[in-house]
Specification:
With 414 residues, this protein is mainly alpha-helical. Among the domains are: 98 residues, Rna Polymerase Sigma Factor, Chain: A (Orthogonal Bundle), CATH 1.10.1740; 87 residues, no CATH class; 89 residues, Serine Threonine Protein Phosphatase 5, Tetratricopeptide repeat. The chain has 21 helices and two strands. The protein has a two-stranded parallel ribbon. Helix 1 runs antiparallel to helix 2, helix 18 runs antiparallel to helix 19 and helix 19 runs antiparallel to helix 20. The chain is globular and about 70 Å long. 40% of the residues are buried. About 4% of the residues have low confidence.
Length: 414
């Protein structure tokens, strides 16, 4: 890969969301905006080779994409009717007050816009992750526990529905925001999760996605300061990200929570997250993000892994299942059951989830089962489960960890 190709690839990874969001404000049409942004990146490969890499690649790409969108609108002869107040891109960007927008950040604005009630909740989230956040279709598919082909088809159908129903790019009014909030929170949480443990690739963490999710959540809190679930999400991200320095060793090998050096955790972030958790839980009937934040806070404040308040964590998982009956929650609950009642009890919960079938293809189900079988010294069964987990894993750090465990149980079984 040449220097220019690397620069464009890096700009795609870091700047896609910014460029698309800014271009969509001009194009007022998602398909047109996406086409113009793609064209801008293609143009960069040629122009940067000739003129050199610009000091601000994101600004360069945004300018080119916006101009392409404006040219397309002029060719369609609808420029004046669609954007009567818009003369040049820079003027549009400066004129926030004239639009009456309550959302000041282009990326957050576009997320709220894509979470349109005319689409199903799953389609809203998948489309937003793909278009706005630049998450690959394969990684989105893993988050929804479906194949990449199935997810690609869902995203295509969502885009076609937008076109067929003539759903225009329109920033929702303040009164419409609460109805779209749950989908927006889910998008940001999945963006964080995708960055915190990358479903595929060479590195365990994509720091750019993690930071983007944190930034969006802080902006969302400013926008909707009275929403407790926003506090809960921010708390969850802060407390979880506080462990980032200890998730791998000096050689980049994965470290489980029980093996991490808690003295290196970011105590300021944990303290901020804990305060937010307390506020989010007040008033009763907490939502799923507030409860998840409470679970994360218990992990973060425990002096050791063994000293974690596991019975209370089971209580919180039971409450979480009431508001969010997800099989992934049940899987995490099984780990807590293991710590309270032993690996045999946890294994029974795992086998029930296997029979349920909804987590088929989810790499952490066989990985958890393998660990419990290892603890029970059922070496041959553990070997089979580790091989199944290894086959599903696409992240190099996770593969290396599973390979080490697999070698351990294979040796013990022989």
């Amino acid at each position: 890969m040449t220097q220019i190709e690397r620069a464009v690839a890096d700009a795609h990874r870091r700047e896609w969301a910014f460029v698309l969001a800014a271009t969509a404000r001009v194009a007022r049409d998602m398909d047109l905006a996406e086409e113009c942004v793609q064209e801008a990146y293609a143009t960069a490969l040629q122009v940067w080779e000739r003129d050199g890499i610009p000091k601000n690649p994101g600004a360069w790409l945004t300018t080119v994409a916006k101009r392409t969108a404006l040219d397309a609108l002029r060719r369609q002869n609808v420029f004046r009717s669609k954007l009567p107040l818009l003369v040049e891109p820079d003027e549009a960007d400066m004129d926030f007050d004239s639009t009456g927008d309550v959302i000041r950040d282009d990326r957050l604005r576009l997320i709220f816009t894509c979470c349109h009630p005319a689409l199903s909740g799953e389609a809203q989230i998948a489309l937003t992750l793909r278009l706005v956040c630049g998450v690959s279709t394969g990684d989105i598919a893993q988050a929804f526990l479906v194949t990449e082909a199935t997810m690609a088809a869902r995203i295509t159908r969502a885009k076609k529905k937008i076109s067929a129903a003539r759903i225009a790019y329109r920033v929702p009014a303040a009164g419409e925001l609460p109805d779209r909030l749950d989908a927006v929170l889910t998008v940001i949480h999945l963006l964080f999760t995708t960055g915190y443990t990358a479903p595929s690739g060479e590195h365990l963490v994509r720091a750019d996605l993690v930071q983007r999710a944190l930034d969006l959540t802080r902006m969302l809190r400013e926008l909707m300061p009275d929403e407790r679930e926003v506090w809960g999400l921010l708390a969850l991200l802060l407390v979880t990200d506080a462990r980032k320095a200890t998730r791998t060793d000096a050689d980049g090998k994965l470290l489980l929570l029980e093996d991490q050096d808690r003295s290196q955790w970011d105590r300021a972030a944990i303290a901020e997250g804990h305060r937010l958790v307390v506020d989010a839980l007040r008033g009763g009937n907490p939502g799923r993000f507030a409860i998840q934040a409470a679970i994360a806070a218990l992990h973060a404040t425990a002096p050791t892994y063994a000293d974690t308040d596991w019975p209370q964590i089971i209580v919180l998982y039971d409450a979480l299942l009431q508001v969010w009956p997800s099989p992934v929650v049940s899987l995490n609950r099984a780990i807590a059951v293991t710590m309270v009642d032993g690996p045999a009890a946890g294994l029974a919960e795992i086998e029930a989830l296997e029979a349920d079938g909804r987590l088929s293809g989810y790499r952490y189900l066989p990985a958890t089962k393998a660990d419990l079988l290892r603890r029970l010294e059922r070496w041959s069964e553990a070997e089979t489960a580790y091989r199944a987990a290894r086959q599903l894993a696409e992240n190099d750090a996770e593969r290396e960890f599973l390979d080490a465990r697999l070698a351990e149980v294979t040796t013990a079984a022989s």
